[in-house]
Description:
Layout lengths: L6 E2 H15 L3 E5 L9 H6 L4 E3 L4 H13 L3 E7 L8 H9 L6 E5 L17 H6 L5 E3 L4 H13 L4 E4 L4 E2 L15 E4 L4 E5 L4 H11 L3 E5 L2 E3 L3 H11 L1 E9 L4 H12 L4 E7 L10 H7 L4 H13 L1
Parallel strand pairs: 2-3, 2-4, 4-5, 5-7, 6-7, 10-11, 10-13, 13-14
Antiparallel strand pairs: 1-8, 6-12, 9-11
Helix pairs in contact: 1-6, 3-4, 7-11
Amino acid sequence: MSATELKSTRDAFGQALLELAEKSSKLWVLSADLTDSMRVTSFADKYKDRHVQCGVAEQNMVGIAAGLAANGKVPFVTSFAAFSPGRNWDQLRVSVCLSNLPVKVVSGATGFGNSKDGASHQALEDIAITRVLPNLKVVTPLDFNQTKQAVLSIFKDPGPVYMRIGHEKVPNITKSDQEFVIGKADLLKEGEEITVISAGAIMHQVLEAIKSSRVKADVINLSTIKPIDKEAILTSLEKTRKVMTIEDHQVAGGLGSAVAEVIAQSGKRVKMKILGVPDTFSRSARSIDDLYKLFKLDSKSLEEEIKEFIRE
Length: 312
């Protein structure tokens, strides 16, 4: 796929499942009546004996996955994030994380991705409720290429993982053969004026804003939010002393909060601003671009925020 071709991270997830299934019989996939939306249809058709259609029963789905994992399988639990981990957080906490089982929860419709379905289907709280769970890693790949690599990495990881994917079609930034290392951030651009940290599909808005502003910025792709790459963050801040985090998630408890915790515990004196959704629900819209603009997270709004932050 060329760098300019647009493709969603959920499409990458579907392809990665098929590739993995050919290599390992341990891979199982569970659905909750969203097989096509999560790009699991091809897997379900080809590997009927390793696909479980649970229906609209997300709590039961995690219970089944825990049982499979306890018996040597590596189950991938799939649904929209509003329902998983939104509805099955208790089962994820007790049945999976408490026993440190290798269940992989992969969720779509994160951020503003499911724009037309409104607030009930747009998960803006999923990072907050997953990163607090012991043993659970939290991963947010950037593009098609990185998502495929991330699926391979989380499959090999011996414990539980939550991976955030989306509907939005975006260009590739990472290379197709670039290994995804859980817990390792990527430095996408180098500069000395400011550190900008983001993750997922919204990073493309961020990069466009940086390009238009001509600000010299360290741009960090925090594709693993837990465990967080403290070294990458603090090394950058030694140089810039200013950091802005940008996310399609509630300001409370998300990527920005995770970065703030690192900074607070380091004792470093730096200037920080967290951009995201300000303690409100989203709404339905004709396109994701409308929601980016509404919450001032589009590239033009971000450009102005970055320039103003540097001037302060």
